[in-house]
Each structure stands twice: as structure tokens, then as C-alpha cells.
Automatic annotation (TrEMBL):
This is ROS/MUCR transcriptional regulator protein. InterPro entries: ROS/MUCR_sf.
Amino acid sequence: MSAPATDRPVERHPVGALADGTPCHAPPGVMEIADEHARCHLCGQWFRSVGAHLRSHGWDRASYRTAFGLERGQSLEGGTTRDRRARAMRRRRAHDPVVRAGCEIGRRWASTGELTRAAATAARGRRQPEQRRRKTLRTLASIPVDVRTEAAARASVSRLRAIAETMATDAGFRSFAEFIRTRVAAGDSLARLSREAGLHKDWLTRHLGTVDADLAADLASDVGGPCPPRHDARLLARIVGLGFRDVASYLRQRHLDEHRSVRAIATEVEMNPQSVRAAMTRHGVPRTPHAPSRQRTAELARSVAHAHGFDDLDDYLTDRRRAGWTWQRIAAESGRPPTWLRRRARSDMS
């Protein structure tokens, strides 16, 4: 067991405590080493080898490093002891065949990158020690802000481009540009492509310019403007068989001339009503709520007026009311309920 140093001040009072209540006599994440001694976090005393001293506390090196936020490679010895052990290891590397074989394996792993990959795999999911976190913060603090910002931006662009290439590869295309051009030409929206890739619907809209600025510029005319052609591709493909050459004329005839509802139009072209409403907005076709029922009501009003020699219902109602007829008498003559007649009169006045 390592004997404590008698010429070093001992921290008798804890400077803190671990999450489980264990007193801490030295700052976590820091291994205090002065010349040939190192301070023990558990008792505050100084030893040539804290690692050897840990047995008196019932601890081992691995649990000690983990508990106090030290890196796995952090030495627990003072400078003299550490140098002595380093010299002993160099002698073993030179004369011990087992150690030489192990070192050769390590060099081979390092040269092929396998050692780095193994270390990354072992560290995945493991919390970063406090000591490493402090080192990282010190290193970052020494780097100018503009350099860090530029590096972060480059890393962000690289991640976005990697996602884009994966999106294209999964869809069976050789490149991201080919994927986007082909699908947009087929009438697919950027939102649809984003959702197919399991991303937010606005992912491509937000990042296309970053991933491929030239591609975004080429597609600007297709994905912008009041009536981009790609939005009408699917609808146009469905109405060609109905005898229409453009979307605007189809919507005007069906909704304004034939008084079909948005839902009826959507059923005919096998699209959802929201898409039909969006197409009407793009092409400036005004929507008439309840168009079929309003058309039937208008036809009924004309038939009532014509049956009594008037051009429209308003003239008929005005004539009868001026003659002193009640709504009940007009209803008896026209065959329509009084409430229906009064409602038509109010709508005509408005």
C-alpha cells in the first residue's frame, strides 16, 4: 500500500460530494499531481500512487476514474512513479515477446484505422468524462469564434449532402440532382419527396439551395411563381382524357358553368378536395360554396317566375307585394313555402 506524503497539505474538509453522497476532497474531473505525489479524491491525502492506495478505500482504478470524471488513460501516480513504470514498460517492449506481439497488433490496428473505429464503438453511448469535457472546452475557447463558426457550417453542409445522397440512392437514382429533376418533372412536390424519405415535409424546400445551389437555381422557375407547371401535372394528366387541354378551362366549366361542387370535381379526377381547391386558387377560379344546391335553387326560382309571366323571381315577388298580397297567399299561388319566398326576397335585396 502506498504511504501518504507528510509534507503535503491534506484537504480535511470535502469540497463537494458525488451523486451518491460520497465525499469529494478534490475537484471532480481534475487529477491533482504535484511533482512525485497525486491527491486522492476520497480522503484528500497525497500519495506516490493513488492507484495502489485505493485498496484501502475498497475501490479499484476503473470505478475511481468513472466516479470522479477522469479519463480512462489518466495516470493516478506522481511523476516519479509514472516515469519509473514507463521505463519498465519500455524494457518489457524490448525483451518480452508477448508485449512485443501485442504492440505489433496495436500498430497494425492503428495503421488501418481499426483502432479508431474500435475506440469509437466502445465510447458510443458512454458519458463523456468531466476531465475530457473540460479539455474540450479549453480547446474550443482557444479557437477563434469565426473559425469555429466556419467549421460548424462546413460540417452542417456535409451532413445535409450526405442525407440528400442517401435519399437519392434509396430511391434508385445515381445522383441527387437526377433524383430531384426526374421526380419534379413527373409532378411530385418537394414536400412529397421529403416525406417519402422520412424527413420533415419542408426539408428539401429549406435545404435544396445548400445541398445543390445550381440545381435549386435551375428549378426556381418550376417551383416558384403563381402557377408552377409541376403543380398541375397530376391534374392535367387526368383531365386530358375528359377532353380538356388545360386545367383552368376544366375548372371553370365544371364549377362555374356546370355548378359542380369541389368534392364532385375531386371525385371525378380522383384527387382530394384540398388539391382541387388549391388548383382553383392558382388559376383564379372563384369558389361557390354549395354550388349544386344554389344552382338548383336558382333554377327553381326562375321556373316559379316564368310560370306567372315574370322574367325573374324578384319581379314576381315585388309585383305581388305591391298588390297587397301576404306571404301566405303568394305561397299558395307559387307552391313554395313562405319562408323560402322571404329568404329569396332578402337575398335579392342584399
